[in-house]
């Protein structure tokens, strides 16, 4: 009998479909990248999604965020995302958290409960904390590196953080994770040189983390296709890893 996942099941079989339905994935950051991760995981049949973001949909999100429409402006992103997921798959379980993930809020989350964690947040401090929490719980994690100030969706690669090059955010993460004894981290990163952003200092300024947080956050340029490409690549890696699928 046909169902909404019949075409997926032709690729991964009934066992794979059941495995995805039984999986629980946390997506931290429901923006340009994380929104597309959420969308693809929902359409793939992942049964339980935890969506974490404290921001609301605003006018400038319309150019790139899949949850952003004129009808959702002003809504919390996780609320708009939950409605979208359940409209795609009414049987999904969706937990939402209006939380800005940082070391101070990390204790709100049980990383042992997740089968996979997606890091699609912007702040370096938050990203490092996510990696550390997932490492302690032995929970697989994949991190998005910089998708802002870029124009080429074909420049993304999947690699270990210590094999990355060009990406200024990845350089900062390599240094900080090495200090903390993290031996590896799967990331999606771009080898395109960011437009107008080249240094570690500028990466931290964009994240609002220079001068111990005193520097005003700089807004990067973005578009409809680069964050989307990163998000779909990440979702593909999550699904493959959950299925232990080799390509």
Key descriptive features of the protein:
seven-stranded mixed beta sheet; alpha/beta; 247 residues
Number of helices: 7
Distance, first to last CA: 29 Å
Class derived from helix and strand content: alpha/beta
Integer-rounded radius of gyration = 17 Å
Please write out the topology.
Layout: H1 6-21, E1 24-28, H2 34-44, E2 48-52, H3 77-88, E3 93-97, E4 116-119, H4 124-137, E5 141-144, E6 156-160, H5 168-179, E7 186-190, H6 200-206, H7 226-243
Parallel strand pairs: 1-2, 1-4, 2-3, 4-5, 5-7
Antiparallel strand pairs: 6-7
Summarize the structure.
The chain is of the alpha/beta class and 247 residues long.
Characterise this structure.
The protein has 247 residues and is an alpha/beta fold. It is built from 7 helices and 7 strands. The chain has a 7-stranded mixed beta sheet, with helices on both faces. Helix 4 (124-137) links the parallel strand 4 and strand 5. Helix 2 (34-44) packs parallel to helix 3 (77-88) and helix 2 packs across helix 7 (226-243). The protein is globular. The protein starts with 5 loop residues before the first helix and ends with a helix.
């Amino acid at each position: 009998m046909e169902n909404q996942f019949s075409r997926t099941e032709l690729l991964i079989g009934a066992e794979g479909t059941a495995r995805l339905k039984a999986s629980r994935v946390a997506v931290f950051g429901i923006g340009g990248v994380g929104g597309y991760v959420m969308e693809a995981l929902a359409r793939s049949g992942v049964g339980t999604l935890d969506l974490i973001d404290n921001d609301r949909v605003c006018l400038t999100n319309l150019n790139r965020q899949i949850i952003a429409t004129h009808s959702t402006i002003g809504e919390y992103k996780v609320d708009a995302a939950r409605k979208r997921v359940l409209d795609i798959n009414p049987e999904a379980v969706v937990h939402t958290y209006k939380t800005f993930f940082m070391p101070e809020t990390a204790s709100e989350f049980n990383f042992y409960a997740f089968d996979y964690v997606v890091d699609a947040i912007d702040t370096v401090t938050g990203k490092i904390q996510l990696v550390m929490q997932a490492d302690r719980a032995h929970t697989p994690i994949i991190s998005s590196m910089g998708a802002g100030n870029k124009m080429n969706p074909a420049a993304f690669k999947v690699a270990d953080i210590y094999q990355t090059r060009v990406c200024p955010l990845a350089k900062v993460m390599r240094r900080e994770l090495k200090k903390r004894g993290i031996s590896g981290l799967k990331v999606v990163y771009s080898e395109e040189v960011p437009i107008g952003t080249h240094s570690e200092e500028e990466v931290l300024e964009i994240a609002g983390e220079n001068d111990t947080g005193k520097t005003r956050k700089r807004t990067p340029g973005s578009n409809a296709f680069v964050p989307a490409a990163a998000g779909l690549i990440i979702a593909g890696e999550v699904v493959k890893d959950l299925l232990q699928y080799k390509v």
